């Protein structure tokens, strides 16, 4: 089974997404050590992946020189909604803030999946052609596929699995069952959960004070089957097919 980037989806070409795996990462302001840990995995297995970027980091150049890696943006509209203008005083300014970090981005997933009609219009205005803000879980039984928004320019790319939501609901880590899903297979991981091998969100919450101290963070890593091992098994299963 082929690993692919979000930017290569063509709604008019079934073969561009069917029977392919789309691994995506919301980097969520993680430390360089934590992000590097995830990059090591992507590079080791030589797979395509899409990273939704939240901040400037020297690791952006490491990702840019890897042809398998697509950089998208992960704008945070939450401060704006609360009257905090740290990223901009309006929708356009917030998007521009993140596009200045990743000017080449054509894919976007908002922090907290924030979206509305004006935001989607602005995405298109800034050349963001693939919106990944629709989450419909694997457990729904709904077969997902990419589709055009109300113009032909903006493509909605729904996703069906996310590590933190999986941990909240304590779903079974059944890679084989999820791989047999017949809709578009878009997975959403976070480097912090890969590093911690998070199996339950309590582990993440209790580790917050050490997110920028890798020595202490390493003491919080789960030794059983969690997010890290799910990702590795997913990659290995995908490479087998």
**Judging from the principal axes of the Cα atoms, what is the shape?**
globular
Assign the structural class, choosing from mainly alpha, mainly beta, alpha/beta, alpha+beta, or little secondary structure: alpha/beta
Largest sheet: 6 strands, parallel
Radius of gyration: 17 Å
* Second rung of CATH, namely the architecture: Alpha-Beta Barrel
Provide the CATH topology.
Answer: TIM Barrel
Fraction in helix: 25-40%
Low-confidence stretches: none
Instruction: Count the beta strands.
Output: 10
Count of domains: 1
Q: For the record, what CATH class applies?
A: Alpha Beta
Query: What's the mean pLDDT score?
Result: 96
Number of helices: 11
The CATH homologous superfamily corresponds to Glycoside hydrolase/deacetylase
State the end-to-end distance: 5 Å
Using brief descriptors, characterize the structure shown.
single chain, 241 residues, alpha/beta, TIM Barrel, 6-stranded parallel β-sheet, 4-stranded mixed β-sheet, 11 helices, 14% strand, globular
Task: Give an overview of the whole structure.
There is one protein chain. It is globular and about 45 Å long. The strands form two sheets. Strands 1, 2, 3, 4, 9 and 10 form a six-stranded parallel beta sheet that branches. The N and C termini lie close together (5 Å). The model has no long low-confidence stretch (mean pLDDT 96). Helix 5 links the parallel strand 5 and strand 6. It contains eleven helices and ten strands. It has one domain: TIM Barrel. 36% of the residues are buried. It is α/β, with parallel strands linked by helices and 241 residues long.
